[in-house]
Design a protein that fits this description.
The chain has 661 residues and is of the alpha+beta class. It contains 22 helices and 23 strands. It folds into 3 domains: 164 residues, 3-Layer(aba) Sandwich (D-Maltodextrin-Binding Protein, domain 2), CATH 3.40.190; 176 residues, Periplasmic binding protein-like II (D-Maltodextrin-Binding Protein, domain 2, 3-Layer(aba) Sandwich), CATH 3.40.190.10; 213 residues, Alpha-Beta Complex (5'-nucleotidase,  domain 2). The relative contact order is 0.13.
């Protein structure tokens, strides 16, 4: 059988195409051929970079090869590596070497052109072409991992499955057999989950399922080439991409909500694989090695992507990350650092540099044109795929890949049907869409979780409630801002924050209005906000007020006694003046934009400036209709604070007094 190899990258700009197998021609630069100016200097030149783990082998190699260079690697959480890099770059003090998992994101605006550097030609031709941005080489791929299914061999054997599944039908049968024996399954029924719900990983999984029977065949190659020329569509080529996933969801083996990165319902894959309550996951060779190293009870093995028929199985591979050089290094006075940083990337682009990096990160594959020894063995389940060249690398443009993955996750969650979702992907691919671009744009970083759960924003102070209120106040420059609890519907989790995450927190389109209001009116507002904390349904009413620029305390409801407003102060502890007029920011909904019938307006009739169904408010005057939503306020806030990681916590703005106090 003729060997085949599809060169691929998960996050790249170029269109997708098939390249020949085997390494490209041309040797990589050797360390001895590198410039060594400045090495005799008494002062070592520091070169900084971020990475998710320590890199002792690569650091030692750099500093042994170039005693004049001090490579300083700062560890940063994987969840924030892109956001942290971009945040620092925007603030003007980013790392000398830029690290990113999304080379097509805004971080590229801060990277310098590497096209003229000799080391940029050391990589496989297909990889180099796929990373071009505007015809220029801006980033280099780090060594990567092979990906596939990881399954609990021990539990499968106990269920009577002694041979590795060879087709998707056999994979489902293995899950069925284990479920029938109560093995590899948690109380939620879930038996399969992706180890990482990062959207690039989710997208690569959906794409990968299509490789054996489509993308790895001649029909798929032709489709991809036609799609590149805008002569074909996702709808025609990906109509079967959810067959396996849908079957797993239907059987309860896969929780589709776990495919959303920031929704707090990700399956704890590592823990569940180790305790035997998850039979199957999708991840890398390195993750499988980690599981086997940690477990004394179970053995784990890998499977490639399987065919629905008799096509050869495939694995996929992806770089661990991408490195570039900070463009500020070209400014006058930075020549020494620029030269040193170039030397670091040049050394990385040699077999010796790649080997050191591979030892540090446990990678399975190098993307150099020259052959690079890889430590460790390719697992038995993937060995034939690798040796025979059945290795696929996803070459969709990064944002298109992300949107495809989000759309397919949405289908599995019942948000729309597959035909409609693929049509939307085609529209985005062919025509673009500003709203989708915003949804997939990196807005900022959360330094910690800010959680909406169990209607907490409707009965107490919370971090997410404070964040929304602060955002409204900062956008409007009001003295006091109020966010009714019913307008907040989601959490923000530690790590990178995308536009779509903000839309989840505040999904409604009611707009913010600025009012002048007497302090006595504000007291009425707060009392009304406390009036529905306890309801017969057990769900607190949405009128509870989260605040910025004000503090208040109330006695908790008990039995038949309702909640009682106790005290109001300003944030610095000074008295609140009920006779004074304050500027306040609230939602138009509270001001009667939808009237007050059928509980509209949440009973805030003391703010009525719009509705004819209730008396107009006294002591209140409309100052401005901003036309902006709470979601807009959050976007404004993150953009205004893009040089810092955001974290809001309860800080005593709202105090709940119990019977015992």
């Amino acid at each position: 059988m003729k060997k085949r190899f599809v060169s691929l990258i998960l996050t790249c700009l170029s269109a997708f195409y098939l390249t020949g197998c085997g390494p490209a021609c041309g040797p990589a630069a050797e360390p001895g051929s590198l410039e060594s100016e400045g090495e005799s200097s008494l002062t070592r030149v520091p070169v900084t970079m971020l990475y998710t783990i320590d890199l002792p082998n690569f650091e030692k190699l750099v500093e042994d090869t170039y005693p004049g260079i001090d490579l300083q690697v700062e560890r940063n959480a994987k969840a924030t590596i892109d956001g942290e890099s971009e945040r620092r770059l925007r603030a003007g003090h980013g790392s000398d070497i830029i690290t990113t998992t999304m080379p097509t994101g805004d971080v590229r605006d801060y990277a310098m052109d590497l096209s003229a550097q000799e080391f940029a030609s050391a990589y496989q031709a297909g990889i180099s072409q796929s990373l071009l941005i505007g015809g220029k080489t801006m980033f280099l791929p780090l060594p990567g991992q092979y990906f596939g299914y990881i399954y609990n061999v021990t539990l499968a054997g106990q269920a009577g499955v002694t041979e590795p599944p060879a087709a998707t039908g056999e994979l489902l049968s293995m899950l069925d057999a284990a479920a029938a024996h109560g093995l590899g399954q948690g109380s939620d029924g879930v038996m399969f989950a992706l180890e990482s719900a990062d959207i690039a990983n989710v997208s690569s999984y959906f794409i990968g399922t299509q490789v054996p029977d489509f993308l790895g065949r001649a029909s798929g190659v032709i489709w991809r080439e036609r799609l590149t020329r805008r002569e074909d569509t996702f709808k025609s080529g990906m109509a079967h991409c959810l067959n396996l996933s849908s079957a797993m969801v239907e059987k309860g083996y896969l929780n589709p909500a776990s495919l959303y990165t920031n929704r707090g319902n990700m399956t704890p894959v590592f823990e569940r694989m180790l305790n035997g309550t998850l039979l199957l996951t999708y991840s890398s060779v390195h993750f499988m090695d980690t599981l086997n190293a940690e477990s004394d009870q179970y053995d784990f093995a890998m499977l490639p992507f399987l065919s629905e028929g008799d096509s050869h199985p495939w694995t996929i591979a992806a770089p661990a990350a991408f490195l570039g050089l900070n463009a500020v290094l070209t400014e006058p006075g930075r020549e020494d650092v620029l030269n040193a940083a170039r030397q670091v990337l040049a050394l990385l682009s040699t077999p010796e540099g790649q080997s050191a990096f591979i030892r540090d990160i446990g990678a399975s594959q190098s993307y150099l044109a020259a052959e690079v020894p890889v430590s460790g063995e390719i697992p038995e389940g993937l060995a034939d795929c690798v040796s025979d060249g059945y290795v696929y690398n996803v070459q969709f443009p990064a944002k298109l890949l992300q949107y495809f993955g989000r759309s397919m996750a949405g289908v599995l969650n019942g948000e729309n049907d597959l035909d409609e979702a693929l049509g939307n992907v085609d529209h985005y691919f062919l025509a673009g869409d500003d709203e989708i671009e915003y949804d997939q744009s990196l807005i900022g970083i959360a330094a910690g979780d800010m959680i909406y759960e169990d209607y907490n924003v409707r009965r107490e102070e919370t971090g997410i409630g404070n964040l929304v209120a602060d955002a409204i106040r900062e956008m409007t420059q009001a003295d006091i801002a109020f966010a009714n609890g019913g307008s907040i519907r989601g959490s923000l989790y530690e790590g990178n924050i995308f536009g779509s995450d903000l839309d989840v927190v505040c999904p409604y389109d009611n707009t913010v209005v600025l009012l002048e209001a007497k302090g006595s009116v504000i007291r009425e507002m707060l009392a009304n906000g406390l009036s529905c904390i306890v309801q017969e349904s057990g769900i607190p009413g949405g009128r509870f007020l989260n605040v910025s620029g004000l503090c208040y305390s109330f006695r908790a409801p008990a039995g038949d006694r309702p909640a009682e407003l106790l005290d109001i102060t300003l944030p610095d502890g000074s008295p609140f003046d009920e006779s004074r007029t304050y500027t306040i920011a609230v939602t138009s909904y509270m001001c009667g934009a939808d009237g007050y019938l059928d509980n509209n307006g949440d009973g805030f009739t003391m703010l009525n400036v719009y509705s004819d169904t209730a008396p107009l408010a006294e002591g209140v005057a409309l100052v401005q209709e901003t036309g902006k939503t709470f979601g807009d306020a959050l976007q404004f806030y993150f953009q205004a604070h893009n040089d810092e990681a955001i974290l809001a916590r309860p800080e005593g703005r709202i105090k709940v007094v119990t019977e015992d106090e």
